[in-house]
Design a protein that fits this description.
Oligomer: homodimer
Number of helices of chain A: 7
Radius of gyration of chain A: 17 Å
Shape of chain A: globular
Distance between the termini of chain A: 20 Å
Strand content of chain A: 25-35%
Largest sheet of chain A: 6 strands, mixed
Strand order of the largest sheet of chain A: 6-7-8-3-9-10
Helix content of chain A: 25-40%
Bound molecules: adenosine-5'-triphosphate, magnesium ion
Chain lengths: 226, 226
C-alpha cells in the first residue's frame, strides 16, 4: 500500500548539506504494523513526512495506494491525507484555540462527516485514551502526555486506512504507552488499519510485526517478527 | 537545598477542579540526583514548575537555597532562576528566531557573562551533546531529539546550582539518552550540581540516586539507591 523508492531528501544549511534521507527504499503492505527505529537525526520523521506527502523528496518516488505522490497536485495530496491517512506529529501540533474534542473532530469535519457521528467517534476514542473527562479543555490545560494522547485520538478517530505515528509514546508512562499500543494493535487487527510508527522505545519495537532501522538516512537493517 | 512543604496546586476547569498537586512534601539535599516518576497527569511537571518558581502553589511553602519563593517579588524570583536554576522544559521552549548557539547562550547573556566566555561554554556543551556542527541552525531545522538536546545544553551551559529537567530524554534514542545521563551525572559528581528530573524512562530511573513516585498529585513512594 506504500512504496518508497530510492528516496533522497537533503537540506542545505549554513554549515553544509544534510542528507536527511540518502537513498531509502521500503515497501509496506496493507495491514502491516511497522516500526522505524534509529538514532536521533537518522531520518525517521523525514521518512514519515515523505510517506504522508507532507514533504517532497529531491529524488526517488513515493506511491501510496497506487498513486504517485510526486505527480499529484496540492489539492489531491491534501484530499489523500484527509481521507486516507491519519498523522501523529512528534510535537503533536494541536490547535491551541480548539478544545480537546474539537481538535479530535477536526479531520472528520473536513471530511464532511455529520456532527453527531463525528462527535460520537471522537468521544469514543478520547475515552479509550483516558481523556473522556477532558473534552472541553484546551491543549494548554493538559499535561505533556495528555496532549500526546489528543494527537493520537485526532489521527485515529476517523479510522483512516493508514496511520503514520511519529514517536506516539515518547511522553507517556509505560502503562499508558502499552494501552495505546493495545488500541493501535486492535485497530490494526480488527479493521486492517496500516500502522507505520517511528519510536525510540524498545517496548514499542517489541510489539511491531516488522522493524526497520535507519541510520544516516539509509535503511540499515530490517527484521520480521511474529 | 530545596524544601517543598505540603504544596497544593489545583486548576478550575469547565469540568471541575483538577488537583495537580494535592499535598506533596519533599526535601532535596544539595548535590542530589533525584528522579520523579509517575503516570501521565500525576503532577511531575507541576512539581518541577513549583520548585523552580514558575508556578505558585495555592497552599504550602517552597524554599530554594533558604529563600521562601512565596515571599519573593517577581524580579527576585527571576534573578534566582536566572542565576541558580537551569530549566529543561518538556516541550523545549526554544526561541525559534535564535540559532542553536544563541539559544544556548541566552541565560548566560542575561547573567552578563562576557561574549567570549559564554560562547566558549555554549560551544563546549553543544559539542558534548553532539550538536557541535549545528551551531548556526534554527530550531525548525532540527529533529525532535536535536531540539531536546539544545534545551538541555541551554539549561546546563552556565553550570547552574540546580537543574530541573522535565523528561529530558523523551525524544532521544537510548544511546543518546545514556550519553546525556553520563553528562548530567558527571556535572553532579564533579561540580555538585543538584539534579531533579521527571521521567517515564526506566533506564533513567535506574541511574537516579533517589526515586520519588507521584500519583494523583501526591508522593506515593520513595526509594533510595546507591
Ligand atoms: N492549565 C491547566 N488547567 C487545568 N488542568 C491542568 C492545567 N495544567 C495542568 N493541568 C492538569 O494537572 C495535572 C498534572 O499535570 P502535569 O503536567 O503536572 O502532569 P505530568 O505528571 O507532568 O504529566 P505527563 O507525564 O503527561 O507530562 C493533569 O491532570 C493536568 O491535566
Ligand atoms: N529544515 C531542516 N534544515 C536542515 N536540516 C534539517 C531540517 N529538518 C531536518 N533536518 C535534519 O535532517 C536529519 C533528519 O531529521 P529527522 O527529523 O528526520 O530525524 P529523526 O530520526 O526524526 O530524529 P529524532 O529521533 O531526533 O526525532 C537531521 O540531521 C536533521 O538535523
Ligand atoms: Mg523525529
Ligand atoms: Mg509533564
Amino acid at each position: 500500500v506504500i512504496e518508497v523508492d530510492d528516496v533522497k531528501r537533503h537540506y542545505v544549511t549554513g554549515g553544509g548539506t544534510v542528507k536527511a534521507l540518502d537513498g531509502a527504499s521500503l515497501t509496506i503492505e496493507r495491514g502491516e504494523f511497522l516500526a522505524i527505529a534509529g538514532p536521533s537525526g537518522s531520518g525517521k520523521s523525514t521518512m514519515l513526512n515523505v510517506i504522508g506527502g507532507l514533504d517532497v523528496p529531491d529524488s526517488g518516488e513515493v506511491m501510496v495506494e497506487g498513486k504517485h505522490l510526486g505527480e499529484m497536485r496540492q489539492s489531491q495530496l491534501a484530499a489523500l491525507r484527509r481521507d486516507r491517512i491519519g498523522f501523529i506529529f512528534q510535537a503533536y501540533n494541536l490547535n491551541p484555540v480548539l478544545t480537546v474534542l474539537e481538535n479530535t473532530e477536526y479531520v472528520m469535519m473536513l471530511q464532511g462527516k455529520p456532527p453527531a457521528e463525528r462527535k460520537k467517534l471522537a468521544v469514543d476514542v478520547l475515552e479509550e485514551v483516558g481523556l473522556g473527562d477532558m473534552l472541553d479543555r484546551r491543549p494548554s490545560q493538559l499535561s505533556g502526555g495528555q496532549q500526546q494522547r489528543v494527537a493520537v485520538a485526532r489521527a485515529i478517530a476517523g479510522a483512516p486506512a493508514i496511520v503514520l505515528a511519529d514517536e506516539p509514546t515518547a511522553n507517556l508512562d509505560s502503562t499508558t504507552g502499552q494501552e495505546l499500543l493495545d488500541m493501535m494493535e486492535r485497530l490494526n487487527r480488527e479493521r486492517g488499519v496500516t500502522f507505520v510508527f517511528s519510536t525510540h522505545d524498545p517496548e514499542v519495537m517489541k510489539r511491531a510485526s516488522r522493524l526497520i532501522r535507519l541510520r544516516d538516512g539509509k535503511i540499515e537493517s530490517e527484521e520480521r517478527r511474529r
